[in-house]
Amino acid sequence: MTDAAHSYPVSARNRVKRAHERGRYDHETVHAILDAAMLCHVSYVIDGQPYATPTIHWREGDMLYWHGSSASRMLRHLRAGMPACLTVSHLDGLVLARSGFNHSVNYRAAMCFGTAVLIDDPDEKARALVGVVDRFYPGRTAGLRAITEQETKATTVIGMRIDEASAKIRAKGVGDDDEDLDFPAWAGVIPVRTVIGAAETCPKIPAGLSRPASLDIYAEGTALDTALTVTQRLYEA
Ligand SMILES: Cc1cc2nc3c(=O)[nH]c(=O)nc-3n(C[C@H](O)[C@H](O)[C@H](O)COP(=O)(O)OP(=O)(O)OC[C@H]3O[C@@H](n4cnc5c(N)ncnc54)[C@H](O)[C@@H]3O)c2cc1C
Question: With contact defined as beta carbons under 8 Å apart, do 182 and 156 qualify?
């Protein structure tokens, strides 16, 4: 396979211009950033007004999915087939320099471009409604009360094939100017992580029912991006 087969095409739209050395277009890097997050922002324009809606997403190959109430304005507009941009970003570190100008952050971000369409094929929609649960909690749907026809009707699923994408990553120390290095101000990187907390069991759970071992992926203290990367791999397997 060629590199092109492992990368998204690069155009004027997705070519990283500012700090271009931080740009990546290969599937592996872009997908890793998408898969390490549950939260994304979907951006689109309605009647000339830009919106950026936070929501959860999941990925199957080069398809991105998100869902919501059939009454949602975002979903009602996107279902018609609309250009959209889905972004994910991870804040990995605070970078404190010897000048305000050189302060920065370490991050991983992905921007995906495509046309958002309504998933109305009943089989694909049913599969997606399993995916939105099982992608995050492997195998969980099989142990749940089945989805009803009414619930399926009340839910809209949107899919977007990634036509073009870019990743941008900063993962390094302080970028001070040489002439500032002797300046007596503390400088360095403060790492940032989003970590799973202690689970709070619903008090109405029947006696004797314990948390399934499959949820140990979300054990207290685990980094969220690690847990989500693991669950994506299990979902793909
Ligand atoms: C947590 C976080 C904090 C940031 N803080 C700042 C800040 O304070 N100031 C600042 O100037 N920038 C910041 N950035 C970087 C910012 O996202 C942009 O990359 C930058 O502002 C350049 O924007 P541009 O439109 O000029 O880029 P251009 O290089 O002109 O954008 C061209 C194309 O490059 C790609 N691209 C650009 N940025 C990104 C990205 N972040 N991720 C994936 N693809 C991208 C897109 O496909 C875009 O269409 C931050 C990023 C993150 C994730």
Answer: no
- Residue 35's alpha-carbon distances to 61, 91, 190, 191, in angstroms, are 11, 15, 24, 20
- Give per-residue pLDDT as tens, 167-211: 999 999 999 999 999 999 999 999 999 999 999 999 999 999 999
For residue range 23-40, list pLDDT tens digits in order. Answer: 999 999 999 999 999 999
Contacts of 6 (CB under 8 A, 6+ apart): 26, 27, 28
Query: Exposure string (b/e) for 17-47, b if CB count within 10 Å is 16 or more?
Result: eeeeebbbbebebbbbbbbbbbebbbbbeee
Q: Ligand 1 — pocket residues by CB below 6 A?
A: 13-18, 89, 91, 105, 107, 109-111, 166-168
Which tokens belong to 21?
Answer: 């050395």
Q: Quick one: which atom of ligand 1 is closest to the CA of 17?
A: 29
The residue to mutate among 7, 18, 25, 41, having the most atoms of ligand 1 within 8 angstroms of its beta carbon, is: 18
Q: Domain extents for the chain?
A: 4-193
What does CATH list as the number for 4-193? 2.30.110.10
Predicted local confidence at residue 1, as pLDDT: 45
What is this structure's pTM? Answer: 0.96
